[in-house]
C-alpha cells in the first residue's frame, strides 16, 4: 500500500493525459443505450413492489386491510406499518411510506394498494416555518455563531442595509428515479441500487437488518444522476430487502416520478433576515443573519450561514440558523446544500450595500478580501479568488455595452456574485491498480460514477502515472464486494479524495514494473521511468511495456494506494465568481438571462472537457433554481402540488444562455499529490445572486425571493419606483 | 391480445394487453432497455422512439396503436453518426436521457440535415437533461456529420 503523499506532485499545466480534454471513457456505451442502470436490472423471478404513501401532510391511520391486499391477484407479500421501521401509522408528510406490496408485476402491485383501503384521521399540519420556530418545532438545536461585537460593528457603520431574502424548496429530479433491486443468497443480501455512496448504503442496510456489513453487497455500475438525493439507502431499499426476504425472490422497488417528487428529498426553503454595515470606503463592519430553514419532517441543517461567516474578512459576524420541523417532505443534500441558499442572500445583500455606497460591486468585494480563514485565521491551502476577480474584469467591463442595448421595456444589465464552497475531499479512500502481462491496466475501486465523469478522470490519472495511453486503462467500480472503500460522490469530493489514491495505486504498480525491468535488463531502478507505453532508461534504451510485463505470464502486478491526510492547520476551499448578463421586461417582469461567465478556482483540472461540461450543467441547474423551479404546496393542506415534470419546471435546451467557462487550473500545492479540488458544486453556488444583481443593475429593482417569478420581479420594480419617488 | 411490431427492421409477434405501452413492450417484452422511462407521463422525452420517422413518446403510446408503422429505437441507431458526435462533444453526463436525445436528434437531422441553433433548440426542447448537457447536445447536433 502506497499512501499518496509519498509521490512528488506533478508540474502544473497539461501533462501527457491529465489536463488534456478526454471524451468520457464510458460515453459511447452510455450513448448507445448499452449500459445497465438500476432501472434496467431484471433478475429471474423478480417481483415488483409498490408503496402506499400518505395522501395527507399529517394524519393517523385508523384502518388498513392488509389481508385483502395479500389475497389480491399476483400479490406475493404485504408489509404493514408495523412490519418495518420505515413504514408508519402516523405520517408527518405527504408521501411518507405506510405499507408496501410485492407482486408479479408492477401493475398488480399498484392495483393491490387499492385493496389496502386505508382510512385516515386527518390532523392539522404545521406548515409555517416562523410559527415552527416560535413553537420550538426543530429537527436539530439552533446553530449559533458569533465573532466580535456585531452591535458595535453596525453602530460604527456609515451605512447599514437590512433585507429579508427567501429561497424556495427545490426538487432534484435526477432522470433516473430512486430504486433498488434486492436479492438474498443465504444470509447474504445483494442490493442493486442507484446511489452516490456504495459504502454508505452497505452500512445503512446492514445496520437496519442486523447484518454484518459484508453480508450486504451493494452494486451500482451506472447511475442516472443524483445531485445529492442519492447519498442514502432510502426506504425503498429496505422495503425491497424485506419483501425479498419474505418471498425468497428478488424484489424491485423503484419510485415513480410522482413519488420521486414527494419522497426523495429536496433543497429546503429558507427565510434569511440579514444585515450588513460598512464604512464609506466599503469596509465591512458587521454582518448579521437569521436563517430559518424549512427542513421538513426530518433531515439535517446545512450550513446556510457559511458564506456569511467565511466569504469576507469581517471582524464582527453573528448568525443563527434554525432547522425547523414542519409537515413537509424531508430535505436531503442538494448540490452545495446551504451555500446555494446562503450565497443568494449574502451576495444580493452585498450588492444592495454597493448600490447604497455607490461603490463598484467588484471593488467592494476586493476591499473585503479575506487572506486567511475568517473563522479561525488558518491560512488557505490555496486561494486564487483574486485571480478569479481579475479574470472576471473583462466580463464585468461589458456592462456599458450591455446596458446600452436596453430598448423600450427591455432593460439590460450585468451582475456578479462570488462563490465559496468546500471541495477538498479527504481520507479514507482506496484504489487498486492491476497490470497484466499485456501491459494494460485496470483501476479497481468500489466507488460510483453518477455522471460526473469519475471513470474518465480516474483513468486519466492512472494512465498518466503509468505512462500509458488512456485507451489502455480501464476503470472497474460500483461493487462493494469487488473493490476497496471509496468516498461518497458528494461534497465535490470524488476527484480530490479518490484521485490521489488512484495515483498512489498506479505509482505502486509503476514501481513494481520498474523493479522487474531493472532485474531483467540489469539496470538501476532509479534510472527507469514509464512513458508513452514504454519503460525508458535515463541511460538511453527503451522497452515496450508489454515486453516487460510479458515476463509475468499469468502473474499480475497489483498496486494499491490510499488517500493521505489533508494539510494540517490549513483551510481547503474552492472559490469562484460568476458574471451574469440579463434582459428584463419592466412591463411584464419577464427575465431573460443572456450570458453567464463562470470563473472558478478548483485546483488542477484533470479533464478540461468534462470539467467545463460540469460547470455548464451547474450553471444551467442554477438558472432553473433562479427562474423557474419551485416545489409548490397547498398552503392549507400541505399537499405537494408539483409532482410531475410539467408542473415542476426544470430548464430545457431553449432556456440556456451563452455560458463562458474559465477554470484557473492552478494546482493547490498543499493539497495531495494532485492539487485538485472538486468541481461538482461550485458552479451552482453563485448563479442566482449574479442574476439578481444583474436585474438590479438593469432596473434598480432588488429581487429578494426565488424563483424570480414575474410577480416577484414586478414587486421589486414597484418598490424600487416607490423608493425613488420618496427620495425625490 | 396479439401484437405485431416492427422494431429496428425486425418483426416481432407478441402477446400484450390493451394497455401495454410501447415503452413497456420494448423494454419488458423485447429487452430493448436502451429506451429509458424517466417520468412515464410524456413530460421528459427520455422514452423517445421513432414511429416511421416521427419522434414519439413511447411511454404514453399504447403498443396496440402502433400498427404497421416502423419503430426505431436507440438500438437501431447505434451506428448513426450522431452517437459519435454526442461522445465527441461531451453531450452527456449521467447518460440516462441520452438515448432519447439521440433519437430526437436523428429525427431532426433527417428532416433538416443542417439545422441552425434556433431549430435545434426548438426541436430538442422536449428532451429534458437534468445534468444540463444542453450546450454540448446542441454542438453535437450542429456537428453531427463529423
Short structural description:
The complex is a heterodimer of chains A (728) and B (146). Chain A has 728 residues and is of the alpha+beta class.
Explain how this protein is built:
The complex is a heterodimer of chains A (728) and B (146). Chain A has 728 residues and is an alpha+beta fold. Helix content of chain A is 29%, strand content 23%. A 7-stranded mixed beta sheet of chain A has the order 4-5-2-12-9-10-11. A 5-stranded mixed beta sheet of chain A has the order 1-23-17-18-19. In chain A, strands 7-15-14-13-8 form a 5-stranded mixed beta sheet, with helices on both faces. In chain A, helix 10 (339-357) packs parallel to helix 18 (687-699), helix 14 runs parallel beside helix 15 and helix 17 crosses helix 18 (687-699). Chain B is an alpha+beta fold and 146 residues long. In chain B, 32% of the residues lie in helices and 16% in strands. Chain B is built from 5 helices and 5 strands, in the order ββαβββαααα. In chain B, helix 2 packs across helix 5. Chain B starts with a strand and ends with a helix. In chain B, 58% of the residues are buried. The model of chain B has no long low-confidence stretch (mean pLDDT 97). Chains A and B meet through helix 1 and helix 17 of A and helix 2, helix 3, helix 4 and helix 5 of B.
What are the defining features of this structure?
heterodimer, A: 728 residues, alpha+beta, 5-stranded mixed β-sheet, 26 strands, globular, B: 146 residues, 5 helices, 16% strand
Secondary-structure blueprint:
The complex is a heterodimer of chains A (about 725) and B (about 150).
Chain A: E1 2-3, H1 27-31, E2 47-53, E3 59-63, H2 66-71, E4 75-79, E5 97-103, H3 106-115, E6 119-122, H4 129-135, E7 143-147, H5 150-155, E8 159-167, E9 179-185, E10 188-193, H6 198-209, E11 216-219, H7 235-247, E12 251-254, H8 257-263, E13 269-278, E14 284-296, H9 306-310, E15 317-325, H10 339-357, H11 361-367, H12 385-396, H13 399-404, E16 410-421, E17 430-435, E18 441-444, H14 454-466, E19 473-476, H15 494-521, E20 528-531, E21 534-537, E22 542-544, H16 545-549, E23 557-562, E24 574-585, E25 591-601, H17 608-627, E26 658-663, H18 687-699, H19 710-727
Parallel strand pairs in A: 1-23, 2-12, 10-11, 14-15, 18-19, 25-26
Antiparallel strand pairs in A: 2-5, 3-6, 4-5, 7-15, 8-13, 9-10, 9-12, 13-14, 16-24, 17-18, 17-23, 20-21, 21-22, 24-25
Helix pairs in contact in A: 10-18, 14-15, 17-18
Chain B: E1 2-7, E2 10-15, H1 22-29, E3 48-51, E4 54-57, E5 70-72, H2 81-88, H3 98-111, H4 117-123, H5 134-142
Parallel strand pairs in B: 1-5
Antiparallel strand pairs in B: 1-2, 3-4, 3-5
Amino acid at each position: 500500500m502506497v499512501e499518496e503523499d509519498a509521490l512528488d506532485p506533478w508540474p502544473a499545466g497539461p501533462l501527457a493525459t491529465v489536463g488534456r480534454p478526454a471524451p468520457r471513457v464510458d460515453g459511447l456505451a452510455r450513448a448507445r443505450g448499452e449500459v445497465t442502470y438500476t432501472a434496467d436490472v431484471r433478475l429471474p423471478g423478480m417481483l415488483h413492489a409498490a408503496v402506499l404513501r400518505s395522501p395527507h401532510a399529517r394524519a393517523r391511520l385508523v384502518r388498513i386491510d392488509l389481508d385483502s391486499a395479500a389475497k389480491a391477484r399476483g400479490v406475493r407479500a404485504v408489509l404493514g406499518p408495523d412490519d418495518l421501521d420505515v413504514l408508519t401509522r402516523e405520517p408527518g408528510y405527504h408521501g411518507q411510506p405506510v405499507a408496501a406490496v410485492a407482486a408479479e408485476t408492477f401493475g398488480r402491485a399498484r392495483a393491490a394498494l387499492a385493496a389496502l383501503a386505508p382510512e385516515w384521521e386527518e390532523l392539522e399540519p404545521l406548515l409555517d416555518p416562523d410559527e415552527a420556530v416560535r413553537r420550538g418545532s426543530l429537527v436539530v438545536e439552533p446553530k449559533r455563531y458569533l465573532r466580535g461585537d456585531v452591535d458595535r460593528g453596525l453602530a460604527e457603520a456609515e451605512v447599514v442595509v437590512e433585507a429579508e431574502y427567501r429561497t424556495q424548496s427545490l426538487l432534484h429530479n435526477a432522470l433516473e428515479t430512486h430504486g433498488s433491486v434486492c436479492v438474498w443468497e443465504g444470509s447474504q443480501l445483494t442490493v442493486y441500487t442507484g446511489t452516490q455512496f456504495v459504502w454508505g448504503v452497505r452500512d445503512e442496510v446492514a445496520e437496519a437488518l442486523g447484518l454484518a456489513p459484508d453480508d450486504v453487497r451493494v452494486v451500482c455500475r451506472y447511475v442516472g444522476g443524483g445531485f445529492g438525493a442519492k447519498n442514502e439507502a432510502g426506504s425503498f431499499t429496505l422495503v425491497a430487502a424485506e419483501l425479498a426476504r419474505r418471498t425468497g425472490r428478488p424484489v424491485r422497488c423503484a419510485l415513480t416520478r410522482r413519488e420521486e417528487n414527494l419522497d426523495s428529498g429536496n433543497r429546503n426553503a429558507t427565510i434569511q433576515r440579514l444585515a450588513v454595515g460598512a464604512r464609506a470606503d466599503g469596509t465591512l463592519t458587521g454582518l448579521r443573519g437569521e436563517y430559518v430553514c424549512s427542513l421538513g419532517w426530518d433531515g439535517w441543517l446545512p450550513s446556510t450561514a457559511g458564506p456569511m461567516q467565511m466569504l469576507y474578512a469581517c471582524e464582527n459576524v453573528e448568525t443563527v440558523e434554525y432547522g425547523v420541523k414542519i409537515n413537509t417532505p424531508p430535505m436531503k443534500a442538494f448540490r452545495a446544500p446551504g451555500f446555494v441558499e446562503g450565497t443568494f442572500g449574502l451576495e444580493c445583500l452585498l450588492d444592495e450595500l454597493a448600490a447604497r455606497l455607490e461603490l463598484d460591486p467588484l471593488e467592494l468585494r476586493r476591499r473585503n478580501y479575506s487572506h486567511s480563514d475568517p473563522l479561525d485565521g488558518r491560512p488557505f491551502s490555496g486561494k486564487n479568488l483574486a485571480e478569479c476577480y481579475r479574470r472576471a474584469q473583462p466580463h464585468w467591463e461589458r456592462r456599458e455595452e450591455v446596458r446600452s442595448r436596453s430598448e423600450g421595456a427591455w432593460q439590460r444589465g450585468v451582475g456578479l456574485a462570488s462563490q465559496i464552497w468546500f471541495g477538498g475531499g479527504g481520507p479514507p479512500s482506496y484504489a487498486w491498480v492491476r497490470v497484466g502481462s499485456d501491459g494494460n491496466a485496470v483501476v479497481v475501486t468500489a466507488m460510483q460514477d453518477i455522471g460526473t465523469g469519475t471513470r474518465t478522470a480516474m483513468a486519466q490519472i492512472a494512465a498518466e502515472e503509468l505512462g500509458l495511453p488512456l485507451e489502455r486503462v480501464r476503470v472497474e467500480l460500483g461493487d462493494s464486494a469487488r473493490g476497496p472503500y471509496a468516498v461518497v460522490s458528494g461534497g465535490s469530493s470524488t476527484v480530490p479524495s479518490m484521485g490521489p489514491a488512484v495515483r498512489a495505486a498506479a505509482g505502486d504498480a509503476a514501481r513494481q514494473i520498474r523493479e522487474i525491468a531493472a532485474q531483467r535488463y540489469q539496470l538501476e531502478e532509479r534510472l527507469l521511468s514509464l512513458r508513452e507505453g514504454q519503460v525508458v532508461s535515463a541511460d538511453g534504451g527503451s522497452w515496450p511495456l508489454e515486453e516487460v510485463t510479458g515476463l509475468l505470464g499469468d502473474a499480475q502486478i497489483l498496486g494499491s494506494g490510499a488517500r493521505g491526510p489533508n494539510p494540517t492547520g490549513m483551510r481547503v476551499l474552492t472559490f469562484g465568481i460568476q458574471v451574469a448578463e440579463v434582459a428584463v421586461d419592466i412591463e411584464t417582469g419577464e427575465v431573460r438571462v443572456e450570458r453567464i461567465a463562470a470563473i472558478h478556482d478548483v485546483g488542477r483540472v484533470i479533464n478540461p472537457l468534462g470539467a467545463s461540461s460540469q460547470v455548464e450543467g451547474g450553471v444551467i441547474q442554477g438558472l432553473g433554481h433562479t427562474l423557474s423551479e419551485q416545489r409548490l404546496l397547498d398552503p392549507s393542506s400541505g399537499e405537494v402540488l408539483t409532482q410531475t415534470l410539467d408542473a415542476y419546471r426544470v430548464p430545457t435546451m431553449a432556456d440556456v444562455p451563452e455560458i463562458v467557462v474559465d477554470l484557473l487550473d492552478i494546482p493547490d500545492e498543499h493539497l495531495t499529490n494532485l492539487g485538485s479540488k472538486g468541481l461538482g458544486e461550485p458552479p451552482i453556488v453563485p448563479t442566482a445572486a449574479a442574476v439578481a444583481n444583474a436585474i438590479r443593475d438593469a432596473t434598480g429593482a432588488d429581487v429578494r425571493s426565488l424563483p424570480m417569478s414575474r410577480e416577484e420581479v414586478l414587486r421589486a420594480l414597484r418598490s424600487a419606483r416607490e423608493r425613488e419617488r420618496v427620495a425625490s | 391480445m396479439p401484437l405485431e411490431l416492427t422494431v429496428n427492421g425486425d418483426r416481432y409477434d407478441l402477446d400484450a394487453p390493451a394497455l401495454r405501452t410501447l415503452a413497456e413492450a420494448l423494454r419488458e417484452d423485447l429487452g430493448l432497455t436502451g429506451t429509458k422511462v424517466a417520468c412515464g407521463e410524456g413530460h421528459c422525452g427520455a422514452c423517445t422512439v421513432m414511429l416511421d420517422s416521427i419522434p414519439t413518446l413511447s411511454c404514453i403510446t399504447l403498443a396496440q396503436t402502433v400498427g404497421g408503422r416502423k419503430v426505431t429505437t436507440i438500438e437501431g441507431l447505434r451506428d448513426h453518426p450522431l452517437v459519435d458526435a454526442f461522445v465527441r462533444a461531451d453531450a452527456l453526463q449521467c447518460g440516462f436521457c441520452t438515448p432519447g436525445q439521440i433519437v430526437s436528434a436523428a429525427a431532426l437531422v433527417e428532416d433538416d440535415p443542417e439545422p441552425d441553433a434556433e431549430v435545434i433548440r426548438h426541436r430538442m426542447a422536449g428532451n429534458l437533461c437534468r445534468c444540463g448537457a444542453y450546450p454540448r447536445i446542441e454542438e453535437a447536433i450542429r456537428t453531427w456529420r463529423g
